[in-house]
Write a structure and sequence with these properties.
heterodimer, A: about 350 residues, seven-stranded mixed beta sheet, B: about 325 residues
Chain lengths: ~350, ~325
């Protein structure tokens, strides 16, 4: 029962050992801390960078130009915005040179609210990331996908954004990562003893990685988390879990909600999404980034463009409030990003609309 | 001849440098003409930097991979590329934005080079981002036994950007000093703004001192001084695997770009005219030989320009090609 943080760590370990990852770096990524969310503890290719996001992204791009595979971390996505022209440069390098340059680099960064992170530790980045052509963008919703999507990124010849839903980093998976100890409380303790750094002096500690194997989630492929026939909820990251719980509740009332976990934001699985919308005739796009110029608006527009005459109700976007940040107080955060009750209400409202 | 210039370089090398400087100047003047004749949408380039950039390009360890030099260039680097063996006609192709442009397939401005086989990373219009990407190839080349170095150049105005500071900091980290030759070609202007009105530091290279980075300030209008300064700096970086900041004072002979008219600026030193006077006084070349050379390149590039005008433009249906590596056609 690896947590998402442990899953990412194991994927990076697999990448170091098998995929030629030579540098994993960022602020506090190397020892002794191993990342503020512990995802880089115990790895051998990690090192600490200066507190300089532009330098971090520039270094990653330069390494990619040198065909040296790397993973760079921006400690919180809230701090990635001053790197935007370098990100654009990474996204366009292959295109601007008419296909001459592969750019094998991964930028990983924690995103989203859910941990009461206040104004500068709660931002989302998906709306901005999806505005940068040339990147492939993934966001896992569970530990196994976190592992498989990271391996997919590490194998890419294009720049990738690996968006970590920070509220899920401590959430344990329900499906085993290939090689991890049994999904039991005992297995969980065993894994923790093997790969979690001890408190205090870590200078002599070394992890014992499980016998990890390749498990790659193909970029561009979504997953139907709950099957249903009345309404489709398309989402990603932590809202997959919330939408899934809503679907489970409404199923008891005979309302069948199909939940799609996009897993990849770009390129995305339109084949899966459109097939589901054709089946249910109703769709809600859910994410927590701010609602204006939101990625969900693009999906909604495409649904209208291509599926308008098959819809039985208005397609809907449920997204974060268009405010500058997430307020710290419980009530402020709850009012700022979609909650369980919001998704439930949106499903009920959409189903109640007459065809 | 009385007061004849005395050179340290051999005549053969002087003639090689002169040939390159003339070739670069004539190429840039051809590009400017193309712009003014509506055979290009925008011109920006490096006339005035030939005396520095030519000797630089001639000393690059050219090739692909970590054992060769990586170049993170700005858009005034045509002499470097020509010195490395770039074909002038390819610069004309990029100016004309035809499909045969090998650097961008008609997608980018002229003098925005990219050549993976020579470790020339994509030139970007964004000012100073090249000092950030240089960090990455520098890291890749920092390991022991690697023979290549990273070379990055930019103008004086761009040193106000954060990436310049990033490069100073990252290249001098005690845990991993980087083999980066940082170059500033200082023409004293940022488009229309005199550097003296925006920069309090006496010399840009002084910023290296705080980081323990070795530095030099040279007359970039003097090709011989440039040659030896570049050689010393390269030797240091290549051997010590540590950074070096080289500031070259240069001229900007046709203004910032076509946006400022792209007309010859007569009150700045012309490095080519100065060099030719010295070559003549030293008896290395005659005036006729130098005039003939210029006319030869003029005629060559005129014909090449005519050829380029006959070459196909990129097709609009190719816009989605290469958003991802190896991908063609619409990708979503």
């Amino acid at each position: 029962m690896a947590s998402m943080a442990q899953a990412i760590r194991m994927a990076l370990a697999y990448g170091e050992q098998n995929l030629g990852i030579e540098h994993i770096f960022g602020e506090d990524v190397g020892p002794p801390l191993g990342g503020v969310f512990t995802v880089t503890q115990g790895l051998t290719k990690t090192w600490n960078a200066p507190l300089d996001e532009r330098g971090i992204v520039g270094a990653a791009l330069g390494l990619a130009y040198a065909n040296v595979r790397c993973v760079a971390e921006i400690q919180f996505c809230d701090y990635i915005y001053n790197t935007i022209d370098l990100l654009k440069l990474a996204g366009m390098s292959c295109w601007a040179t008419n296909g001459d340059w592969p750019v094998p680099m991964t930028i990983m960064t924690p995103v989203g609210a859910g941990i009461r992170g206040s104004i500068y530790h709660s931002h989302s980045f998906d709306a901005t990331a999806t505005h940068i052509p040339g990147f492939k963008i993934v966001m896992p919703s569970n530990a196994l996908d976190a592992y498989g999507l990271m391996l997919a990124c590490l194998k890419e010849n294009n720049p990738t954004f690996y968006l970590k839903p920070k509220a899920l980093l401590r959430v344990e998976g329900e499906e085993p990562i290939p090689g991890e100890p049994p999904l039991t409380p005992e297995g969980r303790k065993q894994l923790k003893a093997m790969i979690d750094a001890p408190l205090g002096d870590r200078s002599k500690w070394k992890p014992q990685w499980p016998a990890l194997t390749d498990y790659t989630v193909e970029i561009g492929k979504g997953k139907i988390v709950r099957e249903g026939s009345h309404v489709t909820v398309v989402t990603y990251g932590r809202h997959v879990l919330i939408a899934r719980d809503v679907a489970d509740k409404l199923r008891d009332e005979g309302i069948l909600v199909e939940v799609i976990d996009m897993r990849t934001l770009w390129p995305y699985d339109w084949e899966m999404i459109s097939a589901s919308i054709r089946k249910t005739k109703r769709v809600i796009f859910v994410n927590e980034d701010t609602e204006v110029s939101n990625f969900g608006e693009h999906l909604l527009r495409r649904a209208v463009d291509e599926l308008f005459y098959e819809l039985h109700a208005r397609p809907k976007l449920l997204a974060g409030a268009f405010v500058p940040g997430i307020g710290l107080s419980d009530n402020l955060e709850i009012a700022s990003v979609p909650q369980f009750s919001d998704i439930e209400k949106a499903c009920r409202d959409l189903i109640s609309e007459l065809a | 001849m009385k007061n004849a210039k005395k050179f340290k370089l051999e005549p053969k090398q002087l003639i090689r440098i002169h040939d390159l400087m003339v070739k670069s100047r004539v190429l840039e003047e051809r590009l400017i003409r193309m712009y003014k004749q509506n055979d290009g949408y925008f011109w920006i380039g490096g006339p005035g930097e030939e005396a520095f950039s030519g000797p630089l390009g001639l000393q690059v360890k050219k090739g692909k991979g970590l054992d060769f030099d990586f170049l993170h260039l700005h858009y005034r680097s045509s002499p470097i590329m020509l010195a490395m063996g770039a074909e002038p006609i390819d610069s004309l192709r990029q100016m004309k934005n035809v499909a045969t442009d090998p650097y961008s397939g008609g997608r980018n401005f002229g003098n925005h080079y990219s050549k993976r086989d020579w470790n020339v990373v994509p030139v970007s219009s964004t000012i100073e981002t090249q000092y950030a990407t240089a960090i990455g190839t520098g890291i890749a080349q920092a390991k022991k036994g690697c023979k290549g170095i990273t070379i990055v150049n930019g103008g004086d105005a761009g040193t106000a950007e954060g990436e310049f500071a990033s490069c100073l900091i990252w290249s001098s980290r005690p845990v991993m000093p980087l083999p980066i030759l940082m170059i500033v070609t200082n023409n004293s202007y940022g488009i229309s703004t005199p550097a003296a009105t925006q920069h309090g530091e006496k010399q840009i290279a002084d910023r290296a001192t705080a980081f323990g980075i070795k530095k030099a300030v040279i007359d970039g209008n003097n090709p011989e001084e440039s040659w030896f300064a570049i050689k010393d700096a390269m030797d240091y970086v290549r051997t010590e695997r540590k950074p070096f900041l080289l500031e070259a004072k240069v001229s900007r002979l046709y203004g910032h770009s076509s946006a400022s008219g792209a007309n010859f600026v007569a009150d700045e030193q012309d490095c080519l005219a100065t060099f030719e006077a010295d070559l003549e006084s030293a008896g290395v070349l005659t005036r006729k030989e130098m005039t003939d050379l210029r006319e030869k390149y003029n005629a060559e590039f005129l014909e090449q320009g005519k050829q380029v005008k006959q070459e196909p433009m990129p097709s609009g249906d190719t816009i989605y090609d290469h958003v991802y590596y190896g991908q063609k056609g619409r990708y979503w």
